[in-house]
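In response to reviewer comment 3 from the previous cycle, which asked for concrete evidence that the modeling workflow produces usable outputs, we include below a single protein chain processed end to end. The sequence was submitted unchanged, and the resulting structure tokens are shown without manual editing.
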Amino acid sequence: MGSTSAENNEGSVGRRDLIKRSAALGLISVPTMSFLSACASGGGDDSSDNDTEGQTSKSNPFGVKKGSKLDVVIFKGGYGDDYAKAWEASFKSKWGVTSTHTGTQEITGKLQPRFNAGNPPDIVDDSGAQQIPVDVLYKNGQLLDLAEVLDAPSIDDPAKKVRDTLIPGTLDAGLQGGKVVALNYIYTVWGLWYSGKLFKDKGWTEPKTWDEFLAICKDAKSQGIGGLAHQGKYPYYINVAIMDLIAKTGGLDAMKAIDNLEPDAFVGSDAAAAAVDAIYEVVEKGYLMPGTNGLTHTESQTRWNQYKAVFITSGSWLENEQLKSTPSDFDMKFLPMPLLPDSKLPFEAIRAGSGEPFIIPAKAKNLPAAKEFMRMMLSKEWSTSFAKEANSLTIVKDGVDTGVQLRPGTQSTVEASKAAGDDTFRYLYTEWYSEMGTAIENASNELMAKRIQPKEWLKRAQAAVDKQAKDPESKKNHRD
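The workflow returned the following structure tokens.
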């Protein structure tokens, strides 16, 4: 999976700025669960070991030293890690820096002890179900402020700062306390997914309303097919549906109420009540794929690839993650969340923004090389390399050569982003408040298993918001 991202505490990027993201896609046109309580080691400074410090220059703004070593850890999930190996080879060719590469899904298991011991890697793709929550690392002083990287000259156009070459608003997901401490690198779209082949075979058309969605689920059930699969062991995914419905039904104000920890974010919110009722109707009517509550993300997704369910919720990493399981004629398609009655946002509105956070630990041994590595990630060359290897777009404006051919699912997200225009949205609480996010996911797990009712879900979600609001640190985060 990939991760989640957001809009900022300096003003909403919502409709105004996110249209620029979609426009930028004309170029070719991942949750988290509960992870760890805290990392024990705090602080750190931005100084590098002398063995890693070279001479700075216009072409080498951070002073990368030839012959030094770079420790790279990549979450090997939906995007794999071949793209990073290609980057590392390019980095060695240019700078003479050899990388130690670790590709893993066990981010917390492998890295928490290293952070605690003050011996973290130099650069990390901190994603997946075992992600170390960025807010926890930030609160413990373990992340580098990335301002120096973002204010450095762009590789493609040294007259511009790196930050000015990115799709507007995509840095917001990495904000903690007003500082960008994580670089969410991949332009991600979240929503429903289906098989174009299955739709064609069954004569179904893309549902735009929730009633139309339920009608397809009902028809599918009558033919022995599940209506909706969800990744039961990772309720982050079903929250894609719930939270999308809240935003589309209640508009951006309903979304911001959650991010801003309002006392009526859930209890007292008509949009939240309608959304959770809608999802629970799928459960009550037996439209879930049998057994989906007990499956991991890849298990549910693979059964979906086997036509055992019509729809599944996920982000745009799904296609690449399922390459080995997807039939060649499956024709994977993205679908914006269908509308409930009286929705304030149109059907075309989608949740979109940056995902897959990359971080540089404050105590990284080779800070000069880590900073330059991240600067090169934001070049057109490396952005194009990523698109070729991982079948996904990055946050770099016009960052992929037009000759790159995308697979059907990813191409459908490009088309959906164009259709959405400025009607895109993005939650921030998943990055700002990992404990709160986990509590809401746990409530959703209970809901999907019919162990609680919608009213209880709303109470638990609101309790998580109220608890978070008592933390003085939360006052540093706010969306206008």
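The CA atoms of residues 256 and 403 lie 39 Å apart. We consider this sufficient to address the reviewer's concern, and the full set will be provided in the supplementary archive.
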